[in-house]
Amino acid sequence: MKPLKDVAARHLAAIVQSSDDAIVSKDLNGIVQSWNPAAERMFGYSAGEVVGRSITLIIPSERLPEEDMVLSRIRRGEAVDHFETVRRRKDGTLLPVSLTISPVRDEDGTIIGASKIARDISERLRAQQIEADRALLQQRLSALVDASGALFASPTLGDVLPAVLVVARQLIVADAYALWLLDEEAGVWRVNASEGLSDCFLAPGQGGLPGEPLALRAPVAVTDIASIPMLPARRAAHEAEGIASVLIVPLTIRGRQSSTLVLYYREPHEFSFVDVRLAAALGHLSGNAVRAAELYDDQRDRRERDSFLAAAGATLTSSLDFHETLRALANLAVPHIADWCTVDIVNDDGAIERVAMAHADPTRIERVRQLQQQLP
User: Fold this and answer.
1) What's the pLDDT score for residue 80?
2) 19, exposed or middle or buried, with CB in 10 Å at 0-12, 13-18, 19+?
3) Architecture in CATH of 126-299
């Protein structure tokens, strides 16, 4: 019968070999003495590559003081329990681990080294990060709801669009912000409102970008703006402004993606799950505010048009003097449907006669008359 001591040793060795945790032993100088299969899988080094070498092989340079701390405690007979840190694999990638380190003693009780158990905690940390992101997103979405009053404070589109910029600044940290609008008639994108951008970046030569309505389903997060093939015309402007990263949030106006909220970063920025989801929520909420403003503007325009037509009809039947009627119509047209209106007729002798003139700024009427005399 084998001695119980040998049986226990073999049993312990079997446990070490079959463990899912990396189990490593080292001497008091940090030289690896043993390296189980789980350590090979976890760190990418075979036992033959590591045994006899310093454990610092898998410790990032900025964390080397941790090993001095651990060995100091081991020499004092102290254990290190559940120490969470980061170690480096053979391929250079970093791995978050939890370490439990205990002193190893010889038969006389003298401390001769340390036994280290390393557990991969990347999945746990990932799950914790997801939960933290969800909690933060919920908090930021609540803040978005609170701030949404600014988007719906005014029913007009001219007020809603600048309010989008205000809400964005409150919720998403960036170095600069811009709201771009597409002038579909000219086929050019221009900045409608901005914050944190230089006058040079916004100058007419820089501020107009030829283009068409976008076809984006969600915000676009770009860590390296130089890599965007869709913006080569803006590369010089971005370089001059020092822009490194952008977050592009599409907005829909009158059924077309003819507006974008762009967040600019002057250092490379890694966009988080929360950043992108919050930007998407802001885009959706802003889209709803824009649609409400469009409906309001349409209804207002319709009311004004109906009011003008009714007033025009009444004017046409109010006098038999057509000169007086035409002057009344010109005054009615401004500013309902135009800033400026003139009515010219051809009289009986074939000459053109101006019978009515109206302008939103009455002081300009005399100037127009002077020009008419100079350039008949």
Assistant:
1) 92
2) middle
3) 2-Layer Sandwich (3.30)
